[in-house]
């Protein structure tokens, strides 16, 4: 299959990408060939919502459909064998990118489904369904007993969560009688270490974001995880915002007490329609299946069924084969850039935009005012101007940003607002795009605050 061309060549470098390296990366992205609404080049600053795709990722998907499309895992003819190999090779590649094994990665339709798989599996286990058969009470020595929660137990989240890592846990608590508690935030939107005492012996699950999709603040895992490990909580980490910007090592995270984390392909330069649950083999063995049907069974009779072990247990039905192949190409592309270098580049851009916005009267940052322990995500509000109006003015200038509550209403409530405007950086972002953004913000002020 066609692979992305390497954007960087020669000996490995350190530090931020230089202008020539960024230009080489930008040459791989077809979206830059189109014009914005105003006829100028598009300044895409919404990478936290979804990433643009390099040509190699698009070509990989197309090549799969043209040359290797077959029924993976269902036949022995050549196309089927190739499709199966493509899918499993992609599993291994995506897993390796985050320091995991292929046996620890379950493909899902998105990260939201991955979180729901865990929450629903806990709900099923709490209702007496065993992992092995999907029916009947769990035996005393069944690992699924770790998943059983009920009245008197607690699930802990943070106020910084995306709705995808909040609502499933609200629903789990409603079904099981458990209590939902949360880590609160400091004035600038970071997790408040003073609220760590909500993690107690009653805590059965801790679900938290690695980095906020609103403020960009990186969660202090070094403070939180030891507390969760001490009380034996099952830890689910949402890495959707961080996986394309910071190196992840699931092996190290496991040692620190993380049981599972979730990934989103479309935020990692990969295709839409596919995500992943990365979980310890012990957790996958304990979890009862949530979606059932073809591809995940061992034996089916008219009376009952038994299920496969490992990731296939949770991958019922036909799989997103072309999307998995594209995701593999995407992580290989990111690996060639180097996430350390990409993060360093985004830090420079974040500093540039923070300094520019600090000079804007009536503008309030929603989140930290510096680049310490944060990603290239910056949200803000402008006094007297609705975020949607901000977005329209920026769009007219060819600058794309996110407006609204960003699927994170509780953190906006923390700041006393209903919505905000947000820009975020990715592989193609440049200082020139930041300059265009700041110029458009000046236009917002002139238009609405005169």
From TrEMBL:
Pfam families: Aminotran_5. Its cofactor is pyridoxal 5'-phosphate. Its EC number is 2.8.1.7. One of its GO terms (biological process) is cysteine metabolic process. InterPro entries: Aminotrans_V_dom (IPR000192), Aminotrans_V_PyrdxlP_BS (IPR020578), Cys_dSase_SufS (IPR010970), PyrdxlP-dep_Trfase (IPR015424), PyrdxlP-dep_Trfase_major (IPR015421), PyrdxlP-dep_Trfase_small (IPR015422). Keywords: Pyridoxal phosphate, Transferase. It catalyses: (sulfur carrier)-H + L-cysteine = (sulfur carrier)-SH + L-alanine. Residues 44-125, 149-437 form the Aminotransferase class V domain. NCBIfam families: sufS. Catalyzes the removal of elemental sulfur and selenium atoms from L-cysteine, L-cystine, L-selenocysteine, and L-selenocystine to produce L-alanine. This is Cysteine desulfurase. It comes from Actinomyces viscosus C505. The lineage of its organism: Bacteria, Bacillati, Actinomycetota, Actinomycetes, Actinomycetales.
């Amino acid at each position: 299959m066609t692979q992305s061309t390497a954007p960087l060549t020669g000996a490995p470098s350190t530090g931020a990408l230089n202008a020539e390296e960024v230009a080489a990366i930008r040459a791989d992205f077809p979206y830059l060939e189109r014009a914005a609404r105003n006829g100028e080049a598009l300044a895409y600053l919404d990478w936290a919502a979804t990433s643009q795709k390099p040509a190699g990722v698009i070509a990989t998907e197309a090549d799969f459909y043209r040359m290797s499309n077959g029924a993976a895992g269902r036949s022995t003819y050549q196309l089927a064998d190739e499709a199966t190999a493509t899918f499993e090779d992609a599993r291994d590649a995506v897993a390796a990118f985050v320091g995991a094994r292929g046996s620890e990665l379950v493909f899902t339709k998105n990260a939201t489904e991955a979180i729901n798989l865990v929450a629903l599996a806990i709900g099923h286990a709490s209702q007496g369904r065993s992992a092995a058969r999907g029916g009947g009470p769990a035996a005393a020595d069944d690992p699924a007993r770790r998943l059983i929660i009920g009245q008197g137990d607690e699930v802990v989240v943070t106020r910084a969560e995306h709705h995808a890592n909040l609502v499933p846990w609200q629903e789990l608590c409603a079904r099981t009688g458990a209590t939902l508690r949360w880590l609160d935030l400091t004035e600038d939107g970071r997790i408040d270490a003073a609220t760590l005492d909500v993690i107690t012996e009653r805590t059965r699950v801790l679900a938290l974001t690695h980095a906020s999709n609103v403020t960009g603040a990186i969660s202090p895992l070094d403070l939180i995880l030891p507390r969760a490990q001490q009380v034996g909580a099952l830890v689910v980490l949402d890495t959707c915002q961080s996986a394309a910007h910071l190196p992840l090592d699931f092996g190290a995270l496991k040692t620190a007490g993380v049981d599972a984390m979730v990934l989103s392909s479309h935020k990692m330069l990969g295709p839409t329609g596919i995500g992943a649950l990365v979980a310890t083999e012990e957790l996958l063995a304990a979890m009862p299946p949530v979606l059932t049907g073809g591809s995940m069974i061992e034996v089916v009779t008219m009376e009952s069924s038994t299920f496969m072990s490992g990731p296939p247990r949770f991958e019922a039905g036909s799989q997103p084969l072309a999307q998995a192949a594209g995701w593999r190409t995407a992580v290989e592309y990111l690996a060639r850039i180097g996430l350390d270098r990409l993060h360093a580049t985004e830090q420079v851009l974040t500093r540039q935009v923070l300094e520019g916005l600090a000079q804007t009267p009536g503008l309030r940052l929603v989140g930290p005012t510096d680049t310490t322990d944060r990603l290239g995500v910056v949200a803000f509000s402008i006094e007297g101007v609705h975020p949607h109006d901000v977005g329209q003015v920026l769009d007219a200038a060819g600058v794309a940003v996110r407006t609204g509550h960003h699927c994170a209403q509780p953190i906006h409530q923390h700041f006393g607002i209903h919505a905000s405007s947000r820009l975020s950086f990715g592989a193609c972002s440049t200082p020139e795009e930041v300059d265009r953004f700041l110029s458009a913000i000046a236009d917002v002020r002139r238009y609405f605050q005169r």
